[in-house]
Write a structure and sequence with these properties.
two-stranded antiparallel ribbon; 10 helices; 2 strands; elongated
């Protein structure tokens, strides 16, 4: 095997023997120094082996340093980072605007006054402030987490978005399966708004908007306004046995002036006569018809909203992976 491979051995320089030397050459050591030369040769050999071992370790370390993988952000990572930051920044500003509107409504209505503080928990403006606060905190965590590459904030943001998506899906399933109960809750809420129509400006605004836009009056029909102490037929005021102007078919006098008294005495009229003055149908039926007419639009908006949230969750997860890889190999 060896004769075919033709392997040659190269001895170390100080182990080579010069066969051409003779007794007269001055490089031939004296006979008495053979033992000293052997000891010196052993010391040199041991030092060489140690140096070779250390050099081998240093060489392996340098090679490992050169081949150690290094992770750097790609253009897509930078795009996702700043896209997530800008989107959350926009919604953070929107949340602050919602908080401002809610606080403005509470202050304008003097909801913090001592006589009104007891009913502030049911105030729609307080719900608006709460919604704005939650939106601001959620989007601010995503905004700061993206720009500062903070894994804790990004994980908190992604968990909140996941909970929000789950809650929306469950709410849609429950709304589909509990339609009759939801109608009952809407009827109760509508009757409550009618009863407090003159006392709560928010409920009054909501009721007027529903009746004027859906062209309806009351919850089930126009006679539901009897639950209001001012529009009840036994009330002493001028509004007795009447309905608000937003129930009128044509509340504008001569097409220009708002006639706030157009619904006075409407409950005393029979249905045939009243239908030319006010809307007889209730708003619950109007809401049902509006939902049936806009099923496609509602479904599309719902899918888009959930889809945007899922996309946001995907972007956050991708950005988290990039940040963690970058911190490992930095």
């Amino acid at each position: 095997m060896r004769r075919y491979l033709g392997i040659k051995r190269f001895p170390l320089l100080w182990l080579r023997r010069d066969n051409m030397q003779n007794e007269s050459t001055p490089l031939i050591p004296k006979a008495g120094s053979t033992k000293e030369d052997a000891e010196e040769l052993g010391n040199v050999t041991s030092e060489f082996h140690q140096a070779g071992t250390n050099n081998g370790q240093d060489h392996e370390t340098s090679v490992f340093t050169r081949i150690q993988p290094h992770y750097s952000y790609s253009l897509m990572d930078y795009f996702l980072k700043y896209f997530l930051f800008l989107c959350n920044l926009v919604f953070t500003v929107l949340g602050l605007v919602v908080i401002g509107l809610g606080m403005w409504g509470l202050i304008t209505k003097e909801s913090f006054a001592q006589e009104k503080i007891g009913s502030i928990s049911t105030d729609p403006m307080l719900m608006l402030v709460t919604l704005g606060l939650l939106l601001t905190m959620l989007c601010l965590s995503g905004c700061v987490g993206a720009i500062r590459e903070n894994c804790c904030l990004l994980k908190l943001f992604s968990a909140a978005v996941l909970v929000l998506i789950t809650a929306q899906v469950l709410a849609a399933i429950l709304a589909y399966n509990l339609q009759d109960q939801i109608v009952g809750y809407l009827r109760t809420g509508m009757l409550t708004a009618i009863a407090r129509y003159q006392d709560d400006l928010d409920l009054r605004f909501i009721t007027d908007e529903i009746q004027s836009n859906l062209q309806c009056c009351g919850a089930d029909n126009y006679r539901d306004w009897e639950v209001n102490i001012y529009y009840n037929c036994s009330a002493p005021g001028v509004l007795a046995c009447g309905v608000p102007a937003t129930c009128c078919v044509d509340p504008l006098e001569n097409g220009t002036v708002w006639n706030s008294q157009c619904g006075v005495g409407a409950q005393r009229l029979d249905e045939f006569t009243a239908q030319s003055v006010i809307f007889l149908g209730g708003c619950l039926g109007g809401i049902s018809r509006w939902i049936e007419q806009h099923e496609g639009l509602i479904g599309t908006v719902s899918v888009v909203v959930v889809g945007v949230q899922i996309l946001t969750l995907f972007i956050t997860t991708r950005l988290l992976e990039s940040i963690q890889w970058h911190k490992v190999y930095i």
